[in-house]
């Protein structure tokens, strides 16, 4: 079995393979994450995705059978075997030249990476990223229908009532999106095959096994889970296994995702978006190996294509900003081949704008944004206090997918972590030692404004809490608190109304003992007036770093009920763009089930985008949220199915101030049977400021109604007879905003029709600033410890002289530059240059002293410099990657002429760091931020 280890960042820069290293030194990973966290991806130690040039011309074909071109793979394998014997292992071979063409491998000796540069057929080399895995999909639990409640007198009635409430809650989501009305038309995804690439799948769940008893599996022909497989075996080894089953906590996410798409549990009344569609499931992880490797995703995407899926759904993401990451590139090629691809937009909305994700930022890929659910499942509890006048029992509703306790007769004392109602930091820190063991209590916690809900629940869990009621605050949205608890643990959590929490906390503060029971009673539906149908706080902001209008749609993703593995309770709730992704994927299946399969991916995207409903930023406002967060708006599937107008293009990119494209043309076509009269209207969204001084503005970004674009139309109104088309010129005027804050303005052009389902809206996006002026390199730090800087590789201390000597004998003897990116970049290079170079960088020499290099007057940032050799070359770098970055020189470099890896000769040198600014030409020296380090000597022993 291959041992899997992870790299840090620094080691990636020791590669002598710099001229073909084609990915960022660091990528973020935000697949399946809690909306509250975001972590950097690691990399598989000595693991690489080697992209190869095909040996023949690639021909696009509608045939899904694999086109095998294995010549380059065999040649590379023979080349490596001749050089290093068996000191490498192939992981996955990707041999269809229409798709991503290459191989992933692990080298036993990290120094052998330099051999790849000598192989003539290599196109690019990418370190294998390890994507972040989910916490398990939130805390699951049985959706109670009365059958397990000990003192229910009429089980059949309770089951019937519970099922009707669950149906109401389920249909509440579908009513938000028009899916319920599409179901009435018979649009349930018949004959559509969705490829879901995720963690693991329990197809024994009664909602996923074709109506069989709960716990009985159904996989293959005639089953809702029609096929698929696993990219790794149960031991975590790469390869291909025919069974995607997985029901442990660490892979529960896939079952939840699949239920959103195709669940069909008539007993409980739970129905997914496309219950007649079939799923091919592709498992990426194992219970014993909960890591997602980038190459496993590539292999699964390729397999899904060859298996003939119509739609690929991927609830995963990691930081990118560009379309050229391997997963994004393959997603784009699947779209070219006619496959509709939907991917999560990401859950790090708190990090602000220009933070698009792979694979969602691939060309033609539908990005799934999230809006909050507006109807929840609730249950009833009763509390009372002894010794208090008027202390008769009171009832409350707690929001959860399951009852807290099936024994209605058991009485629990209530313990409040703070008896002061609405304490802002309640349970944000470890609970005091005076806290009793909470196992046999109902623990009451005020929802905090100072820390996240998962932190509060974790603090209670540390004290053994098993039942936690979190009382909400006015103005905060309803949610399933259980989704923030550890999956599979003993702790159950639910949300209650502010008034109930205050009442209990005040009774306890007055010295009264409060007890609580959980009687058997039918569930109830609970509304969410604060955030229902509005953007989820976690949903991620675009745009891509090349300022493309996101091909984005919003769907329910905040607090969503769906299936869980049977051993985890069969049903539960979770939140994330992971939930919106299968919702949109299955909506496409339902759409194609009614409209047919002749439309291309671009036509389907246009139909859904231009019939979506633009949503406001918040309740009780009339300000539309920015397009970079909602795209076309909340999907309206019924409007898309019924539409009688087509419009192209489906998005308008106005670019930035330097490349402003203010006049554009829309072409509208009447596809209905009656003449339509159109009035052109402008629906501006609020402008968001991407920058706050020298930092990215933290989300949620407040849209400004006073800084909006204006638009005019020619013609402003017109009529179209059936089958006729008309061109409309749209002229925009950008708002006068503070360019230093990088204002992103956006909105919608609406062609309002007098015919039912004739109106269409087209989103637009522009930047009221020059993107190319945005600094790429961060120059923060304290005097004496600023960056970029040449640093001691052992102590990280800034080197402020020109005479430090390195002998290149080991990692402590390699010249090292540290730096941090502020914005992303298409290209970052670190070159070894002669000490006496006349190049003058854009960033002054650090350390707060007089320059020791030649005066800037003798050189220029625009000077073309001839490097001695290259030590790092990185492409498609995302926005402000986490932490400081380090590039090391030696012991080899890449020769700038031959491209070969050669030893660095003795001499006196500097390191030159250059980062291409956004939207600038790479062949122009003035397009780069640059920094030239202090000098250093290389003197080999």
Question: How many domain regions?
Answer: 5
Number of helices: 12
Mean pLDDT level: 88
CATH topology of the largest domain: Rossmann fold
What is the strand arrangement across the widest sheet?
10-9-13-8-15-17-19-28
- Overall shape: globular
Largest sheet: 8 strands, mixed
Q: What is the number of beta strands? A: 55
Rg, nearest Å: 29 Å
* N-C termini distance: 40 Å
Give the strand content: 25-35%
Instruction: Tell me the name of the CATH homologous superfamily of the largest domain.
Output: Peptidase S8/S53 domain
Structural class: alpha+beta
**What is the helix fraction of residues, given as a range?**
10-25%
Assigned CATH architecture of the largest domain: 3-Layer(aba) Sandwich
Oligomer: single chain
Detail the poorly predicted runs: 1-41, 136-159, 848-859
CATH level-1 class of the largest domain: Alpha Beta
